[in-house]
Design goal:
The protein is built from 1 helix and 10 strands; from the N terminus they run ββββββββββα. It is mainly beta. The strands form 4 sheets. A 3-stranded antiparallel sheet has the order 3-10-6, with no helix packed on it.
């Protein structure tokens, strides 16, 4: 178990930042054989400049509980690549339904991204979490259970 500080945008990307401390445990996951491809499509026109990261609104992508997103590493837009998919607000656990509505786009050249243009494709896989008891958590559980 580790105490970690989570830092996130409260209202919009580049807007107000909020910090919260939480306890985190390492755990693994198993990915099933079923997955989906989801197109990431721009929902706004945006001028981009070479090597200046920019956030772009996208059509909302809903992630069902226990789904993980992995990039499909094939460049889709001629002006650059999607560095990250994003949503503002407090992070949710993988067990909860989540929605992504923005990307961080890394342009390779100057130009304009247009509404309705394909930015990239992502892989959505369904996963089963495998929680492992970290060394400290296992010892704490044993002490509480057996009071030794």
């Amino acid at each position: 178990m580790a105490k970690v500080g989570c830092v996130f945008w409260k209202d919009k990307i580049g807007g107000e930042i909020e910090r919260r401390e939480t306890e985190a445990f390492p755990y693994g996951f198993t990915v099933g054989p079923h997955g989906e491809w989801e197109m990431v499509i721009a929902e706004e026109d945006k001028k981009v400049r070479k090597s200046e990261l920019v956030n772009i609104k996208i059509g909302e992508i809903e992630l069902p509980p226990k789904a993980i997103v992995l990039p499909c590493f094939i460049m889709r837009h001629a002006l650059g690549v999607v560095s990250s998919l994003a949503a503002v607000g407090k992070a949710k656990g993988v067990e909860e339904r989540r929605a992504l509505d923005e990307v961080i786009f890394h342009p390779f050249t100057d130009g304009k991204v247009g509404k309705g243009e394909l930015l990239c494709v992502v892989n959505i896989f369904y996963a089963a979490t495998e929680r492992r008891l970290a060394r400290g958590a296992a010892e704490k559980w044993l002490r509480e259970r057996y009071r030794y």
